[in-house]
Amino acid sequence: MGAMSRSRVGIKFCGGCNSRIDRLGLAKELEEKAGDRFQIDLLGDSPVDVVVVINGCKKGCGFTPDVLEKGRKCVVVEGENVDLLQAVEEVLSRGDVRVIRFVDGFKLAE
């Protein structure tokens, strides 16, 4: 029986000009909680299974049109601390949802 490949997660950060959260800390927390379940890297040119966009505020400038070209699913955080591991697992498991956004503490599925 072959080894299962891990889902690839690409992290993209906003510019950080008005950050209300610890963006790097949130990414590190995801890596620690995920362990070996996901392959997590900064978003680059290679396609990934899930793009995680970590915005420090509600403006959400890190969620740009090219994001959805690089990943088939997306989790967007806009100035709120969330359980990113739970969000990544949810977006991967739901066939009816491509983007999950967290804005002002509310979860919006698109």
Structure description:
With 110 residues, this protein is an alpha/beta fold. It has one domain. The protein is 24% helix and 34% strand. It contains 3 helices and 6 strands, in the order βαββαβαββ. Helix 1 links the parallel strand 1 and strand 2.
Radius of gyration: 13 Å
The ordered H/E elements are EHEEHEHEE
**What distance separates the N and C termini?**
36 Å
What is the strand content?
25-35%
Please state the overall shape, judged from the principal axes of the Cα atoms.
globular
Question: What key attributes describe this structure?
Answer:
110 residues; alpha/beta; six-stranded mixed β-sheet; 3 helices
TL;DR of this structure?
The protein is 24% helix and 34% strand.
Topology (SSEs and partners):
Layout: E1 7-13, H1 23-34, E2 38-42, E3 48-55, H2 67-70, E4 71-78, H3 84-93, E5 99-103, E6 106-109
